[in-house]
């Protein structure tokens, strides 16, 4: 084989290696894009289910060993414990508003490991006809895991930034947080102690830079 042919073969092998590397890189980007979409859909589905009191549907989004912690009430460990907690929340029906909009995600995904972390905020409007109306806002620092090929909530941690009576407004102060659920003790204590507005609270970030 001539030197010229050897040189051409070497070039072709180098091009092939570069193409394979580029293919792998693009495949990883596609997987990350799919995972990002699936995680957005997962968290937003949770919000829609909570809006309408579909507690079983919301609980089914948790991993088998997933945890739930909301409003400093302690940590509930496992999908069925999350289900039990959710079913203690108000029943949806006539004259009830219980909206929890999922907004402003910052998501970091390890597609190869099948894990992810995300920071969200939720805008809350709740009320009962002729009785009470409130609005509020919370930060979520959540974790996710791919389980049986589907993304599931591994940790849902909601930190309430403020609750306020709708008619009074937040400039009149906030509603103190309810620290327990009657008849349902948590499995673990709260991750950290805090009080909502007018006290300042900054939920720890899972990242240093986006």
UniProtKB/TrEMBL annotation:
The keyword Coiled coil applies. Pfam families: SnoaL_4. It comes from the Bacteria. Gene3D superfamilies: 3.10.450.50. Keywords: Coiled coil. Residues 34-156 form the SnoaL-like domain. Residues 2-29 form a coiled coil. This is Nuclear transport factor 2 family protein. It comes from Altericroceibacterium endophyticum.
């Amino acid at each position: 084989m001539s030197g010229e042919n050897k040189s051409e073969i070497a070039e072709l092998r180098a091009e092939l290696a570069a193409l394979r590397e580029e293919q792998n890189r693009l495949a990883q980007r596609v997987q990350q894009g799919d995972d990002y979409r699936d995680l957005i859909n997962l968290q937003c589905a949770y919000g829609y289910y909570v809006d309408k009191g579909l507690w079983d549907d919301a609980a089914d989004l948790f991993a088998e060993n997933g945890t739930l912690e909301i409003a400093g009430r302690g940590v509930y460990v496992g999908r069925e414990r999350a289900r039990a907690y959710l079913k203690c929340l108000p029943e949806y029906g006539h004259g009830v508003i219980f909206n929890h909009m999922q907004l402003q995600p910052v998501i970091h995904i390890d597609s190869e490991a099948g894990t992810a972390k995300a920071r969200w905020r939720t805008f809350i409007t709740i009320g009962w006809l002729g009785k009470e109306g409130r609005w509020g806002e919370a930060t979520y620092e959540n974790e996710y895991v791919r389980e049986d090929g589907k993304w599931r909530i591994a940790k849902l941690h909601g930190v309430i930034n403020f609750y306020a009576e709708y008619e009074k407004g937040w400039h009149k102060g906030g509603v103190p947080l309810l620290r327990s659920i009657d008849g349902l003790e948590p499995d673990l204590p709260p991750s950290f102690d805090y009080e909502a507005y007018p006290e300042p609270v900054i939920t720890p970030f899972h990242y240093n830079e986006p």
